[in-house]
Amino acid sequence: MSPKTMKAIQQHTFGGPDVLRYEDAPVPELRAGEVLVRVHAVGLNPPDWYLRDGYKMLPPEWQPKVEFPLILGTDISGVIEAVADDVDGFSAGDEVYAMVRFPAGLAGGSRTYAEYVSVPASEVARKPAGIDHMQAAAAPMSLLTAWQFLVDLGHDAPNPLQPN
């Protein structure tokens, strides 16, 4: 059985790194189609600090509405703690990694700077045995970026986070 509270890095206002607070937060409730992951490592990426700062580089009409407190982060590696009844293919104890709710989670954080995170099962993959949790957590967004610029070169969908 999972604990009711966890430690997380939350923010209650926009700003620099000083707005981040290490504090108690509720453990996410497991919903249909999800797994609960005990986080061993997180990746730090530009969208995290864009959100922390309030997406100031975006025109006001593009800035998403945010509800505080929020927990930043998208990339994780960890161990599955629990699996929703409708999820097949994963079990408690599986080592996994993921880019959680990206880009959908950008408005409120995907909540990965925490001890636990709920993740749609469709977004997790088994962590390769030959890499550790820190390496696995560093992979998702960097691999997406490489794919976008090497494989999908020439795509004409603008990136609102990097208008230039």
Automatic annotation (TrEMBL):
Annotated transmembrane regions: none
Xref: SUPFAM superfamilies: GroES-like
Any Pfam family the entry gives: ADH_N
UniProt cross-references to InterPro entries, sorted A to Z: ADH-like_N, GroES-like_sf, Zinc-ADH_QOR/CCCR
Entry keyword set: NADP
Highest taxon, organism lineage: Bacteria
Species per Swiss-Prot/TrEMBL record: Ralstonia wenshanensis
Iron listed as a keyword: no
Domain Alcohol dehydrogenase-like N-terminal residues, every copy: 32-128
Signal peptide positions on this chain: none
Name assigned to this protein: Alcohol dehydrogenase-like N-terminal domain-containing protein
Entry coiled-coil feature ranges: none
